Amino acid sequence: MKLKKRLGCLHAHYSNIEYIENALAPFNIEFVHFVDPGLMDRLTSDQNFDEADAQLKVKEQIEWIAQSNIDAILITCTNYIAILQEDQLSISVPIIKLDEPFFDFVCTIQQPQTLIFTNPATVEGTMKRLKHYAATNKKLINIESVVLNNTFELIMQGRKEEYNQEVSKILEQLINEDRVISVAQLSMVDAAQLVEAKTGSSITNPLKTLVTSIVKQLNLEEKIN
């Protein structure tokens, strides 16, 4: 019997653990989770904590995780991904970024798109990376970003049910036949799935594309019952 692959996961919030474990439950994989909501808090509330400080902190976290006997590192926080300077890392463990398989899918869509966020601090870095990804892969995309204000603090306070209700309500209002709707953050997946089930409209989310990518990169096998 083959040994389980070990995936080290870096999250900005505990709520992301459940998404990843449930999505990869059918596969022979073991998780080692690292959660640091403090970095996000300092980025948004401490004016003396600049980007260079944040980059150093993420570098230290990634290099610490890489020493934990793992096969790959998954970063689920889009803000952490935007901050990360990979060329400064001294590790050989592959890094899987939540949004890159998502970007790949988004770049195949030719209709006008709306990418929805709840965390304002994530928007600039994610949109910059998406546009760079599209340009590098010679893809033309027609995309705008929308931030659902006054919602992200709910999830950071552990008020997940309220967060899902608020996000679902606004997503329903934003559904438009003329634009493809996507949610940018893992924390929005439950709300997006609720709206999909209720309305029959498709809402793309990063988890849909991530699972396929992880299974392929780690050559995962399904569990034998």
Q: How would you explain this protein's 3D organization?
A:
The protein is of the alpha/beta class. Helices cover 48% and strands 16% of the residues. It has 10 helices and 8 strands. The strands form 2 sheets. The protein has a 4-stranded parallel beta sheet with strand order 2-1-3-4, sandwiched between helices. Helix 5 packs across helix 6 and helix 8 packs across helix 9. The model has no long low-confidence stretch (mean pLDDT 89).
Relative strand content: 15-25%
Strand order, sheet with most strands: 2-1-3-4
Helix content: 40-55%
The count of strands amounts to 8
How do you describe this structure in short?
The chain has 225 residues and is of the alpha/beta class. It has ten helices and eight strands.
Question: Topology, please?
Answer:
Layout: E1 5-11, H1 15-23, E2 29-35, H2 37-45, H3 51-66, E3 72-75, H4 78-83, E4 95-97, H5 99-106, E5 113-117, H6 120-136, E6 143-147, H7 152-156, H8 160-174, E7 180-183, H9 189-199, E8 203-204, H10 206-218
Parallel strand pairs: 1-2, 1-3, 3-4, 5-6, 5-7, 7-8
Task: Please give a handful of descriptors for the protein shown.
225 residues; alpha/beta; four-stranded parallel sheet; 10 helices
